[in-house]
Design brief:
This protein has about 140 residues and is α/β, with parallel strands linked by helices. About 45% of the residues lie in helices and about 25% in strands.
């Protein structure tokens, strides 16, 4: 799996782009490293672009471990938001499981799932948060 990240300093958004096979150990290692980098700042929103993922090698425990990694990071984001983007059904379904597990951990994430990168980026740039996180996520998912 290949990954890259960059920061839009003007809008305080960290973008992660993932390509290839989605694997737990690589994701956890990436985040351990990223959390030590100067690009990681409290209050920074995160755009996770999963559109380049072609397959998943992940157990249920792996999903829980990744969720814990991101929820710990969510706490550090203060007012930051997380947008998950995937155009394919496989990773969009993962995003729904990810959100459900965050909710189950009672983390009340400011997380939305998107199929369109520009829509996700616009949401992250916005400062308005009129609806609850759950309503925003359900609206994006079109449940």
């Amino acid at each position: 799996m290949a990954f890259d990240y960059w920061v839009d300093e003007d809008h305080n958004i960290l973008t992660e782009h993932w390509v290839g096979t989605f694997k737990e150990d690589q994701i956890i290692d990436f985040h351990k490293d990223l959390n030590t980098q100067p690009v990681w700042k409290a209050g920074r929103s995160i755009l996770i672009n999963l559109s380049g993922i072609t397959s998943i090698e992940l157990s249920e425990e792996g999903v829980q471990n990744i969720t814990t990694c991101y929820t710990d990071r969510q706490i550090k984001t203060d007012n930051g938001k997380i947008a998950l983007v995937s155009e394919n059904d496989m990773m969009y379904g993962f995003g729904r499981m990810f959100y459900s597990m965050m909710d189950k951990l009672d983390r009340k994430p400011r997380l939305r799932l998107f199929r369109d990168l520009e829509e996700a980026y616009s949401w992250l740039k916005s400062t308005k948060n009129k609806e609850s996180s759950r309503n925003q996520t359900e609206k994006s998912q079109n449940i």
